[in-house]
Design goal:
The structure is a homotetramer.
Chain A lengths: L4 E2 L4 E6 L5 E7 L9 H10 L18 E2 L3 E2 L2 E2 L4 E6 L9 H5 L7 H8 L15 H17 L3 E9 L2 E2 L18 H16 L6 E8 L13 H10 L4 E6 L10 H4 L3 E3 L5 E3 L7 E2 L2 E2 L4 E7 L9 E4 L5 E4 L10 H23 L4 H7 L3
Chain lengths: 365, 365, 365, 365
Amino acid sequence: MAGSTYGTIFKITTWGESHGKGIGVVIDGCPAGLSLCEDDIQAYLDRRKPGQSRYTTQRKESDAVEILSGVFNGRTTGTPISLVVFNQDQRSRDYGDIASYYRPGHADYTFDAKYGFRDYRGGGRSSGRETIGRTAAGAIAAKILKQLGVTLTTYTKSIGPVTAASFDVGEICQNPLYMPDAVAAAQAQAYLEACMKHKDSSGGIIECIIDGLPAGIGDPVFEKLDANLAKAILSIGAVKGFEIGDGFGAAQANGSANNDGFTVTEGSAVAKSSNHSGGTLGGMSDGSPVIFRAAIKPTPSIAAVQNTVSKSGEEIEISIHGRHDPVIVPRAVVVVEAMAALTLLDAMLLNMTARLDSICQFYRR
Amino acid sequence: MAGSTYGTIFKITTWGESHGKGIGVVIDGCPAGLSLCEDDIQAYLDRRKPGQSRYTTQRKESDAVEILSGVFNGRTTGTPISLVVFNQDQRSRDYGDIASYYRPGHADYTFDAKYGFRDYRGGGRSSGRETIGRTAAGAIAAKILKQLGVTLTTYTKSIGPVTAASFDVGEICQNPLYMPDAVAAAQAQAYLEACMKHKDSSGGIIECIIDGLPAGIGDPVFEKLDANLAKAILSIGAVKGFEIGDGFGAAQANGSANNDGFTVTEGSAVAKSSNHSGGTLGGMSDGSPVIFRAAIKPTPSIAAVQNTVSKSGEEIEISIHGRHDPVIVPRAVVVVEAMAALTLLDAMLLNMTARLDSICQFYRR
Amino acid sequence: MAGSTYGTIFKITTWGESHGKGIGVVIDGCPAGLSLCEDDIQAYLDRRKPGQSRYTTQRKESDAVEILSGVFNGRTTGTPISLVVFNQDQRSRDYGDIASYYRPGHADYTFDAKYGFRDYRGGGRSSGRETIGRTAAGAIAAKILKQLGVTLTTYTKSIGPVTAASFDVGEICQNPLYMPDAVAAAQAQAYLEACMKHKDSSGGIIECIIDGLPAGIGDPVFEKLDANLAKAILSIGAVKGFEIGDGFGAAQANGSANNDGFTVTEGSAVAKSSNHSGGTLGGMSDGSPVIFRAAIKPTPSIAAVQNTVSKSGEEIEISIHGRHDPVIVPRAVVVVEAMAALTLLDAMLLNMTARLDSICQFYRR
Amino acid sequence: MAGSTYGTIFKITTWGESHGKGIGVVIDGCPAGLSLCEDDIQAYLDRRKPGQSRYTTQRKESDAVEILSGVFNGRTTGTPISLVVFNQDQRSRDYGDIASYYRPGHADYTFDAKYGFRDYRGGGRSSGRETIGRTAAGAIAAKILKQLGVTLTTYTKSIGPVTAASFDVGEICQNPLYMPDAVAAAQAQAYLEACMKHKDSSGGIIECIIDGLPAGIGDPVFEKLDANLAKAILSIGAVKGFEIGDGFGAAQANGSANNDGFTVTEGSAVAKSSNHSGGTLGGMSDGSPVIFRAAIKPTPSIAAVQNTVSKSGEEIEISIHGRHDPVIVPRAVVVVEAMAALTLLDAMLLNMTARLDSICQFYRR
């Protein structure tokens, strides 16, 4: 079925394969009146662009985005915004190898199992380039959220066994791994050098903090804010786990330690005295920062020898060469942020109809 | 917005509050021709029924389900199946306390923030009794899955710090905690006794194994099978984390260890030689068992003294009395299984339109 | 697939068969804070209740509605509202006849073709009693619309060849056919007497006028307000046509006559000088009253002899006895109004996110 | 909200404005394995291309479609198919007039009312060029339907007061109005000449016949096949009415004449002896041809003088010059066919999960 559309009000539909003509996204339901130009979106795309450090693929892709519709005189019109990044390098190459066997850790086998065949060029639809569309849409969502007072801070929490121990927001963009801790970043780089030497790759953890979200966003039951965040994050290729607040740590805790007491602020507002919950209670935002983490698996494309099966059913040995990231965590940081932004904005838009008095006020009755 | 509906083809809508007239669910899109009676559903509901051990609330609730529509002469007709559990004990009680303040770890505050007021009786819509509807629907989904060769095994992986070290499927129903390891179960019970003595509660981890799922179920991009499982599981009240396969462990692993090689079975089928992925690749099932875990937070209702705020804005101390579970993990096991069953069945139904040749064959052209 | 859910934000799911345990509806997404009791809903249901005149079936059905959830202390809580009408008369009857053949003009054959069998008692799910759920939900939508300044006036425009020539809103409830023209109502009754004498039935046309809708409700492209009204109305059992404004008359008109010029009101507002469009332009309300009509086919259950086929494949003659309406138009008036109300309210709720400045104002940024 | 997406399984999302960079559509959920190239789609687009006769606009638009994704080695892969028609003539023109007032019969005013401003160039998103996306997608749906044995025949039933009296399928493409009656076509052309002389325009009626649809397609209650067709057709810009089978004629009929008796064919199949219903009963196809009609209003852009209002609130007189169609009916024929094809295909795909035995057979259990 159709699996390339995300969102209810702010709804995006992505398309495109790694080595097709381009990658794109249509954003339907973007409110009218937002100032928007290509640069707003390009800034996000550049954060996932390859070739920025020796820990990401050395392929050269400029990934320049173009707005095809939905913006007039510098502002969104309320009609669909079509964005495209045309692929520059589509030259015919020999994909005989990749077409003939199933790469471990990739979707080659499952695509064949589902559809009967696949576009094998560069991974086709399951390539990391698929995230261009959602990242571009996320840039727009994040711009709107900022105007609503909501900001997202996303960074690498750990690379393999190396975890950031301190948090300096200014440090995040100072190192190629987007870690908020310079010491850990240096250790992580050393770890990655060792992985590369062994023709191996590494996983890691991404953390996202959302500030400024008012209380009451999200819905009880099936459309819980945390449930929708979980889906959004797990829909990113290499993600294998999601946790909010204390997450799996809460499973080992006692209620007395895990509960967040309520208190009254100087401004007479209700607030929590701690944030083990990670900013949600009963599926709705509780006024504290929302904090969640995503577990990213190691890049499956490695140069080391692996056992697999050819399409003709023979057991073979392969080793994957080419320009692959030893770790995809740094490039996935902005993708995580984009998916969170899309989810939060949609929840805020849906929340506007929760109370009859707000609706009456909107229509001035 | 409407947050009480789940699923695309096999679609359920739940309703009801803890102390209202009843709790129910409407299942729309159930295929015609399934043999179905109340007992099929009751068997699932009984697994979450309170009062079954000293580690669950001692409230007496029979929770007898009634089929109101959609079944004729013992078979489903293809029209909506309406199920209801009427609440037996709705007698007026004094809810003055609970109405006047915000319980830590509960949704009292967020409900007020979103809707302006709340049905405070027994937690209203955010009570654990809300899960009756989804569990009843999950029983039907699981019955269909069984006819399609798909079975689910769900159990308690850990209680607080005590983790099952061995796996004996026959043991799961032999202990009140639904652990597959008798020794761990005994340790966990001792741990819970200590929690109860200290007026405290415990969290834990639930694991679910799905066998028999063919390869290719789920979709690339936003409707990945693992993404939908994550949403389904995080939509359960107390869940704070989800991981599939090696999950957060994969974030610390190397590609060479995390990749699952492919091999050829005696029957000439393609299979994986390990299952670090937990049964999905690129968002689609890969033919291996699907394995995921859910982190459950400790019961927030504890008898120990806690700090909170009254609705009138004063900081107060409370302690919650009454019949509360010291751990909700055992009762949540069947709820996790139900949500997984609903998600898998919907994915299998959606998968039927993936290939043109199958569609032509269906319509015999 | 699931076809019993309607709406995006204000979402309803109906269930129940003619002779099952009951008929019901779950309304999910109703805004919190609406004053609501059974009487609000019963008033609508009574308008479709049988036995009110000699032109409707003489069956006795009290159709008393019960609120099972979603209302606390007299106000909606924002959580699902479950409504039920329990069927009073479920006594086992001999349905041998109706089970064994396909009634012309009914859904007996198509249900069998789709699902393999059917609940044949009283028409099962395709009975007119199915409309109880949507009418009950429509009563709530209409109550909210009234608070937003939007009112609906629905009536019988014609019965067979007899068309209302004048419009007196006060007359609508003065005659059993709900016609706004006393003379035409008398003629229509005489016509129906003749139909009944000949063991025959009649069709008719229902018209609905919506006042007070602000301009800009509805969306361009696929979610046009008129498109959604058309679906809503055609989803009612016996409806065979829908037209808005001049409708099929516009197909014979010239642009110079069909275009509505714009003018400026005394209050300096933009208004149309005529209303051939029926209140929409480009799929969005234009500030004029929305006017549409529904064509209703004659009741298919007639006492005259008809040719049909038995399930065993023999050509047979039947004549349908029992208490059937010679015309269903009068009872369908409130159903049309209910479907329009549901559609309009949903469109108004969705419209709240059209502009960024309104969203910023809602969140007070 | 998002209103540019249509369909549940075979889901399309359109984008683009009349004078923007292009017009496009993303088709998500197209089954894998369909042979597809640009020519398949271009054939449909050419049927709505301007400049084909003196009764359509004389603008030159080649409207050449390009496939950007979703097709590999000549077959659909199951992933989103992105189609685009780049606008050739985007040169800056003086739109001062059209920007400054509200054209009668157009969506200028309602766009401003909803979004606060509009892309006024050539009608922006509400231009007839919006239908390029849906027509392109419909071409693919129709190609699949043909492989399932379902064909659509669509034509002009009437132009203004001139109605086709005979039906010769071979004649449809022999006259510029797509009428199945050569005599009526000649009369209609004479009528249009008179309209043009008077600087006026004409409406008309389009009819569509669907052959080969098996019984049981569509769903009871809200997702009736006729309800979804009605929405699909009313979502086309100038459509003001929809009727199926005898439609509004049924409202004047008696049950004895309107009911279609059942009979047994030579091949022992159940069939109807007449088709007043237009091919559906209870919202599901009944095995007869589906027949429906759409009422199209006269082109609103006329050269005759009209009264309207400027954006600054003054009452003014305008006359619209330029290359406008005196009648849009002939060009809308293929758009009606496209929307019907999309609706039918989606209903057929959804129908595959109606019965448990079919599902079990699909998964070979």
